[in-house]
């Protein structure tokens, strides 16, 4: 059943059928041919119980927060401010791409939104200042992936919902690896541009007075991040409550530093509805598919198969990593998460691994899927913002950053405390 389901998934996706619909179709197929009783009779209750979970209410709030910051011009101001602070490094403005993606990730929660925001703001600068288009665009695609690692992260909310893990603990666990990835991206950029200076364009040094004035554009975003994450960690607010406070803060920042009018609010609300509807369709479709898989005995079948391999706990993790790397080439990231979590996570936890740690490891692997062809969404987002050049340039430019992610996977496996230190310290 596992091979037939995988083939069916790839065929449906190849036909450009929306991912959420594909998940429902697979669930109907398994229900018809493999399930011992007709599960479709419970479809209405399944849809209602999944969509009625209060944890998921945080998703539209975080999406709206990011939409407001983008459409009001705050993201462009943040980019210009960070340009003054990091463009002196080898690689110049490439570091501003990564730094802006890191800061915007701390409020957006979405990798695609982060990549689209930075690409829209940064791309006009690439040709004007003589940057290598491959490295410049690859850095934006890679920096955008931080949106699902650095809290607040929509993907971590979905992981916590599906595994019944603590979302505040997951947010804490993602902070150090997320910042390490950002520093790793900057380090590999420095290395490449030190070896081949022509890749990095012009290094610019700004007067200290300009740098200090630029802080005025950064402090509101830093304060907003502190309010959102701080209230969650201190136990003063749930993720949903903190997200609603974040929306109010974004509106205030947009009114004071950006542009806030009825047009911006209307566009932000419309964008939020579109993104939230897409996410919820995938989550609900995956819930139905996972229910049919469990009823048809797939979990037991997979457990029997892995037991037959005689793997050690570490061997199991390496096999799981390999599965995610391969599937990441072909399956959209949120779909990959929601389809595999109910099957893989119980096996990993049964082998003695912490579900919070595994959540962070999975997110790094999901991040890699965002910048690996042929289905890497961030690659297409950045190419769309370029409006010229070949797609292959973005793919080649992302390769060094994929290697950084692989190194982070190895570090998390070798040193789980990178993810578990903050949750255990502040528990």
Give the quaternary arrangement of the chains.
single chain
Number of helices: 20
Major beta-sheet overview: none
Beta-strand percentage range: under 5%
How many separate structural domains?
A: 1
In whole angstroms, the N-to-C terminal distance is 41 Å
Shape: globular
Helical percentage: over 70%
Which secondary-structure class do the elements indicate? mainly alpha
The counted number of beta strands is 0
Low-confidence stretches: none
Tell me the Rg in angstroms: 21 Å
Element order, helices and strands? HHHHHHHHHHHHHHHHHHHH
Mean pLDDT: 81
Function: Part of the tripartite ATP-independent periplasmic (TRAP) transport system.
Family: Belongs to the TRAP transporter large permease family.
Transmembrane segments: 7-34, 54-74, 135-158, 170-195, 215-236, 242-262, 269-289, 309-327, 334-353, 359-382, 394-422
Keywords: Cell inner membrane, Cell membrane, Membrane, Transmembrane, Transmembrane helix, Transport
């Amino acid at each position: 059943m596992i091979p037939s389901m995988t083939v069916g998934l790839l065929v449906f996706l190849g036909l450009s059928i929306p991912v959420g619909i594909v998940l429902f179709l697979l669930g109907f197929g398994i229900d018809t041919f493999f399930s011992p009783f007709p599960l479709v009779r419970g479809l209405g209750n399944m849809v209602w119980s999944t969509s009625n979970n209060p944890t998921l209410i945080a998703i539209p709030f975080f999406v709206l927060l990011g939409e407001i910051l983008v459409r009001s011009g705050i993201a462009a101001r943040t980019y210009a401010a960070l340009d003054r602070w990091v463009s002196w490094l080898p690689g110049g403005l490439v570091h501003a791409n990564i730094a802006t993606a890191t800061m915007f990730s701390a409020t957006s929660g979405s990798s695609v939104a982060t990549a689209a925001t930075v690409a829209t703001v940064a791309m006009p600068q690439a040709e004007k200042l003589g940057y290598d288009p491959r490295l410049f665009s690859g850095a934006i695609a890679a920096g955008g992936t931080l949106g699902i690692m650095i809290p607040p992260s929509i993907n971590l909310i979905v992981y916590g919902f599906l595994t019944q893990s603590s979302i505040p603990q997951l947010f804490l666990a993602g902070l150090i690896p997320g910042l390490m990835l950002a520093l790793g991206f900057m380090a590999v950029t420095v290395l490449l541009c030190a070896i081949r200076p022509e890749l990095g364009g012009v290094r610019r040094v700004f007067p200290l007075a300009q740098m200090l004035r630029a802080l005025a554009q950064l402090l509101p975003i830093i304060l907003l991040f502190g309010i959102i994450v701080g209230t969650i960690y201190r136990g003063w607010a749930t993720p949903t409550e903190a997200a609603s406070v974040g929306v109010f803060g974004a509106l205030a920042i947009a009114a004071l530093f950006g542009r806030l009018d009825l047009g911006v609010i209307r566009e932000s609300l419309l964008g939020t509805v579109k993104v939230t509807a897409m996410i919820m369709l995938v989550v609900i479709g995956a819930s139905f598919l996972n229910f049919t898989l469990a009823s048809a005995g797939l979990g037991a079948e997979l457990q029997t198969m892995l037991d037959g391999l005689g793997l050690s706990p570490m061997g199991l993790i390496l096999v799981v990593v390999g599965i995610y790397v391969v599937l990441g080439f072909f399956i959209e990231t949120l779909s990959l998460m929601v389809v595999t979590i109910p099957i893989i996570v119980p096996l990993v936890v049964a082998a003695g691994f912490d579900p919070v740690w595994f959540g962070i490891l999975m997110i790094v692997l999901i991040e890699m899927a965002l910048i690996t062809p042929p289905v890497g969404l961030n690659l297409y987002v950045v190419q769309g913002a370029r409006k010229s050049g070949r797609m292959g340039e973005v793919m080649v430019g992302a390769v060094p950053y994929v290697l950084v992610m692989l190194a982070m996977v190895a570090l998390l496996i070798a040193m789980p405390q990178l993810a578990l230190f903050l949750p255990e310290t502040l528990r």
